[in-house]
């Protein structure tokens, strides 16, 4: 049998080789075509639109010397949205990671009900951001919302607050909810990192008299560093792009005080018909994302090498 | 020295603020969804209604046309999941088990496309679909969902496929099994759990997606579940919150239950896919 097989294979070397050489390309071809069709073409189309004069129905005319970009950068709302996007991203990502590390450490311990605790903490991940936004919008309603009612019950509040209609509270509230929905994914990745640590190293450090804090600072933290890097970059990308929460809860109101680049982009494109500015903004954001992605790819590849 | 009961209490105490904030919206959903309408808009609001009105769900189902929306969501999500897997599995197989020039480039290409989010491209995608005459058609949504899940799926599947030992297939090859037989009898059964987990992730993504649905769909009878629920809130003076909360419950609970049941394998799947 074995010999026969070998002979049979030896008889058709050229056929087999050609088949084998082209097979991987045939297998990956559909995925590449798909990506070029649905993702590549729109990028090309928007890049093209962004350097041409374009009317509100999307008809492009002459090349216009990057006038769309000039109008974007000099738009009165641009700087505000850009700063808010940075504040939003830095606070949500920073808050998420700061909270997720201790939570992951707790969930990595053995205690009664740990499985239940893990399930509860993963819960916000399963619910769509749209639904989360809708429920919080109702909960934060100034008159009938349960947030005010609960705060009043515990004597923490005298007069009801219109959380989402007040410009000083709306954005911080959005940031807090942004953190809440980013925790599950972040905790998951950090837990993955923690579970890869070897217990004997920690035992040894304990015997040598290292305190809990010392063990965390000089052992745990450096060892989960690669995982922290990855959640930082991935969260940065996700949060930078986060649209549904803000759209559902405030739509950028009151008076654009909660608009970030993505919500403003949507309004420019589909509400104000400013297709030139919108396509320029899309390309700018695409380039920012591309830069972030290259950082991520470098980190991921480095991890892969060290674990392979 | 370490008392397990005391330790457990301490752990739960530390987690309690977060647990409360996470469960709070679920409590609000349930509380509002079963309230009689007059009590929904009563000041001050109370957690417990005078009666538990399950009739709200029936009324909501008819008044909000949630049934067709659920059907649309199911249709789109299943179609996108199947199509995405059909395209992703061969690519993942090649990326994980075959040596070819450009393999590294392909993997980098995957990483980059994985990062692109619909919102940044939504204007271009809308124009593409308009050009193809697909606006307000459910297939437009299916195509877009497949495109945005492909990179993730290929990436996750190939990470899994790498853990399946090649030796089994090589042994079968020596025994004279054809490529197709090897795939069908050896590889696919071993890969089935990975494919299942990837399918769940794609499905949940499609089920929950919002931006593309809002942009590409126009007529109410084509709405998906998220879009239909949002339309009960967005741009209305009078929001019927009891119906809205009942709808969000119906939309969220099935996915949350699937997620909770499969939590362990989903999480381990993701750490294989995301970190490796």
TrEMBL record, chain B:
Role according to the record: Part of the ABC transporter complex MalEFGK involved in maltose/maltodextrin import. Probably responsible for the translocation of the substrate across the membrane.
Species, as recorded: Kaistia terrae
Descriptive protein name: Maltose/maltodextrin transport system permease protein MalG
Classification via PROSITE patterns: ABC_TM1
Signal peptide: none
Transmembrane segments: 12-34, 74-96, 108-130, 142-164, 185-205, 244-262
PANTHER family assigned: MALTOSE TRANSPORT SYSTEM PERMEASE-RELATED (PTHR32243), MALTOSE_MALTODEXTRIN TRANSPORT SYSTEM PERMEASE PROTEIN MALG (PTHR32243:SF50)
Main location: membrane
Keyword list, A-Z: Cell membrane, Membrane, Sugar transport, Transmembrane, Transmembrane helix, Transport
ABC transmembrane type-1 domain span: 70-262
Lineage, opening ranks: Bacteria, Pseudomonadati, Pseudomonadota, Alphaproteobacteria, Hyphomicrobiales
InterPro entries per the UniProt record, alphabetical: BP-dep_ABC_trans_perm, MetI-like, MetI-like_sf
Family of this protein: Belongs to the binding-protein-dependent transport system permease family. MalFG subfamily.
One of the Pfam families matching this protein, by short name: BPD_transp_1
Subcellular location: Cell membrane
Protein's membrane topology: Multi-pass membrane protein
């Amino acid at each position: 049998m074995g010999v026969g097989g070998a002979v049979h294979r030896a008889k058709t070397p050229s056929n087999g080789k050609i088949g084998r050489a082209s097979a991987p390309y045939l297998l990956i071809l559909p995925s590449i075509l798909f990506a070029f069709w649905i993702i590549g073409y729109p990028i090309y189309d928007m890049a093209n639109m962004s350097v041409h004069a374009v009317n509100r129905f999307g008809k492009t005319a002459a090349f216009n010397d990057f006038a769309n970009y000039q109008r974007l950068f000099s738009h009165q709302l641009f700087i505000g949205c850009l700063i808010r996007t940075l504040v939003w991203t830095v606070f949500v990502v920073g808050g998420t990671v700061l909270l997720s590390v201790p939570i992951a450490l707790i969930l990595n311990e053995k205690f009664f009900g740990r499985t239940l605790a893990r399930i509860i903490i993963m819960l916000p991940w399963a619910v769509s951001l749209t639904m989360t936004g809708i429920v919080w919008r109702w909960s934060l309603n100034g008159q009938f919302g349960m947030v005010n009612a609960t705060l009043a019950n515990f004597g923490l509040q005298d007069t009801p607050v219109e959380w989402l209609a007040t410009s000083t509270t709306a954005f911080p509230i959005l940031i807090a909810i942004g953190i809440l929905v980013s925790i599950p994914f972040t905790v998951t990745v950090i837990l993955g990192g923690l579970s890869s640590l070897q217990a004997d190293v920690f035992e040894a450090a304990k015997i040598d008299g290292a305190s809990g804090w010392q063990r965390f600072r000089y052992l745990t933290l450096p060892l989960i560093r690669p995982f922290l890097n990855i959640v930082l970059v991935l969260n940065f990308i996700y949060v930078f792009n986060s649209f549904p929460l803000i759209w559902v809860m405030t739509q950028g109101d009151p008076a654009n005080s909660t608009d970030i680049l993505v919500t403003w982009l949507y309004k420019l494109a589909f509400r104000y018909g400013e297709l030139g500015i919108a396509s320029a903004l899309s390309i700018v954001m695409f380039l920012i994302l591309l830069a972030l992605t290259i950082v991520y790819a470098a980190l991921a590849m480095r991890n892969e090498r060290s674990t392979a | 020295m370490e008392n397990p009961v005391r330790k457990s209490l301490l752990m739960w105490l530390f987690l309690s603020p977060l647990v409360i904030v996470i469960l709070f919206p679920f409590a609000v959903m349930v509380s509002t969804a079963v309230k009689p309408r007059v009590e929904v808009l009563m000041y001050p609001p109370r957690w417990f209604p005078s009666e538990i009105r399950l009739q709200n769900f029936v009324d909501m189902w008819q008044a909000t046309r949630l049934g067709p929306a659920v059907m649309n969501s199911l249709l789109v999500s299943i179609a996108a999941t199947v199509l995405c897997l059909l395209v992703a599995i061969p690519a993942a197989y090649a990326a994980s088990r075959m040596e070819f020039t450009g393999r590294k480039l392909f993997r980098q290409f995957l990483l980059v496309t994985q990062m692109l989010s619909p919102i940044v491209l939504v204007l271009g995608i809308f124009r593409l679909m308009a050009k193809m005459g697909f606006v307000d058609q459910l297939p437009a949504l299916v195509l877009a969902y497949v495109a945005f899940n492909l990179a993730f799926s290929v990436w996750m599947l190939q990470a899994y496929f790498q853990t399946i030992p090649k030796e089994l297939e090589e042994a079968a090859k020596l025994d004279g099994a054809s490529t197709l037989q090897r795939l069908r009898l050896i590889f696919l059964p071993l890969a089935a759990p990975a494919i299942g987990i990837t399918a769940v992730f794609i499905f949940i993504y499609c089920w929950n997606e919002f931006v593309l649905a809002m942009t590409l769909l126009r007529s109410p009878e084509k709405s998906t579940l998220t879009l239909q629920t949002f339309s009960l809130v967005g741009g209305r003076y009078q929001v019927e919150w009891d119906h809205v909360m009942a709808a969000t419950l119906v939309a969220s609970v099935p996915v949350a239950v699937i997620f909770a049941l499969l939590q362990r394998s989903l999480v381990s799947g993701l750490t294989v896919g995301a970190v490796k």
